[in-house]
Amino acid sequence: MQDLLYLFQQLVNGLTIGSTYALIAIGYTMVYGIIGMINFAHGEIYMIGAYTALITITGLATLGVTWLPLILFVALVCAMIVSSAMGWAVERIAYRPVRGRHRLIPLISAIGMSIFLQNYVHLAQGSRNIGFPALIQGGFEFGPADSFQARVSFMQITIFVTTLICMSALSAFISRSRIGRACRAVSQDLGMASLLGIDTNRIIAATFVIGAALAAVAGLLLGMYYGSIDPLFGFIAGLKAFTAAVLGGIGSIPGAMLGGLILGVAESLTAGYLSSEYKDVVSFGLLILILLFKPTGLLGKPEVEKI
Whole-model pTM? Predict the structure, then answer.
C-alpha cells in the first residue's frame, strides 16, 4: 500500500512539472513547424513572464487588493501581454532580418537575444533568488495518518486544469480560426502560402506571440509552484522544454504535450527512486535514445525535402 501511494505521489509530481514543460515546448514546436528554426530565446521569455507576474502581484498587494481570483487574473493577463510583446520583438529583431539565410545565422542571433534578455533581467531585478508568494495552498491527502500520505495540492490541480484549458483552446484555435488555418498553410509551404495571398510575416509573428503567451502562463504557474525565481529560471526550464519538444516530435503540438508529460514523469520517478542528482541524466539519456532510434520524435513526421 505504501509503495503504491509513493508511486502515485511521484506520478502526480511528474505530471505537474510535465504539464508546464508542455506549455513552454509549444513555443519551440510552433516556431519550428512554421519556419524550421529554434527560438533559443524562448526560455528567457518564459522567465520574463514569471517576473512580470511577480511584479504585478506585488503591486496589487501594495494597493491593498486581496481577492485571490482578481490577483491571479490580473497577474496572468499582464504576464501574457508583456511576454507576447517580447515574443513579437524577438521575431522582429532577431529572426525576420536573417530569415532565409543559412540556418546557423538565425541560431546565433537567437542565442545572442537569449544572453541579452538574461543580462537585462540581471541588471533590472538583480541576480539573487526572489521569493514567489504561495497564493494557492491546501490540498487532498490519501493514505493512513500514521504513515506516508500521498498529497495532491490545489496548486497541482490548478496546473493540470490550466494546462488542459490552454491546450484545448490552442487546438480549437489552430483548427477552426482563420489565423490557425493560415498557420497550417504556412507550415506546409511558406512560399505557396505567400503566393496565395497570406501575409506570412504576420502569421510568423502571431506564432511567436502565441508561444510567448503560453510560456507566460507556465511562468506564473511554476513560479507559484517552486516559490522562487531568478534570472536563470528560464534557461533550465527552456532547455527541458526544448528536450520535450524534440522527444515528442518537434513541429507537432500533440507531440510537445506528450513529450512534456513523459519528461516530467521520468524526472520525478528518477528523483523519487534513485536521486535528484540523476534526473537530468535520465532525461537527456531518454532524448538520446529517441534521437538514435526515432529521430523524428514520438509523434513527429519525416521531413520531406522539396526540390
Answer: 0.89
